[in-house]
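ok trying again, last paste got cut off:
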Amino acid sequence: MTTSTRIPIDLWHSSSYRQGHPIDQYHWLLDNAPVYWHEAPEEIGGGFWAVTSHKLVKEISLDNKLFSSYAAGTMLYDMPEEHLGAVRAMMLNMDPPQHNRYRKLVGPQFLPKRAAEWQADIAQLASQIIDEVSERGECDLVRDIAGKLPSYVVAQLLGIPLEVGVRLYDLTEVMHSAMDSVTDERRAQVASDYQAFTAELHAEKTANPGNDLASSLAHAELDGQKLTSQEFQAFITLLVNAGGDTTRGLVGGGLVSLVQRPEILEQFRANVDELMPTAIDELLRFQSPVVHMRRTATEDTTIGDVSVRAGDKVGIFYAAANRDPAVFDNPDDIILDRNPNPHVAFGGGGPHFCLGSHFARIEIDTIFRQILTRLQNIELTEEPTWVPSNFTCGPQHAPIRFTPSPKAADLSHEPSR
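nice, full thing came through this time. structure:
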């Protein structure tokens, strides 16, 4: 796809993401300006470089010395120095070697073998979620299915009630909403509610530890010292945000895209086992639930053939890189058996490659198997509405209907014929 005619470029305001990714903008940038100076309001610290090519996104991701996460955080807006300290306590906003030490603290919990141990529990949760809607024949795909599974998994990882995990879903949705879509008062209230939750969780798990990740973190030591309350909160925030919005956006957005392409959906349904491994990667590429991350240039340098100054903001747009025609044939098509598929939906490599990628794959596999085998004749009853965010991409509401079916427990007790 070649788009040489100049089109308006706005990757900042939430209006550009009203119907999902601004695909036309991505293609224009990829064809004409893969390193593009993007003007932005002064109240967020001014403009930034928007980097969209697959090659350059990977190069920047791998070079944490030239392109820092720690210098100013990973969001495109600048924040006051007094807030930056708290943000830097989160592993996402660290550079090596500090990042490496923190990652080692929780890394073993997310290794493939450890994630695989959760497979049966995740399958049970997914079955329970479909049981809650199967007999009704209609539901909100996002709130009732796509958002439930990661909320439940995060709750079990942290050792908190499932309903609290769902409450955290609502908080993260506001956290990730664009600055122009949520009032400062609402954002401040959510931040206060979330801080109160993490402080209470820290106190509870310190006093009454269990066999869960929150307890492990409450009693963990780094360089001989227990984590501070702020460090504990930063870990929990990263886990809840990264483990919730992303899987929710992928499952919700992925299924909406499949329902809108019924022949592809039926191809998937008819070949679940054969297609699932490659289909997961294709939906990750196509949906790209994380739109971008910010890096800050630490010295004068070049990106491609463009000169960048020390201190400049650099936005690496994973969603655009995943549509790069230099890497992906027919990038706007869903090709369930696409192979190879070097997408950057989990990051472009380097120290910040998604720690929870193995959990995410298990969740995606499990919930899609449940949907494809138990919910027949799925159709949208209204146009989906999308989360008003330039940071994560996924539907906020997507009402669907389907052929009602029994709960899994009822199915297991059907007499044999």
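cool. The first helix runs from residue 23 to 32. The two ends are 53 Å apart (CA to CA).
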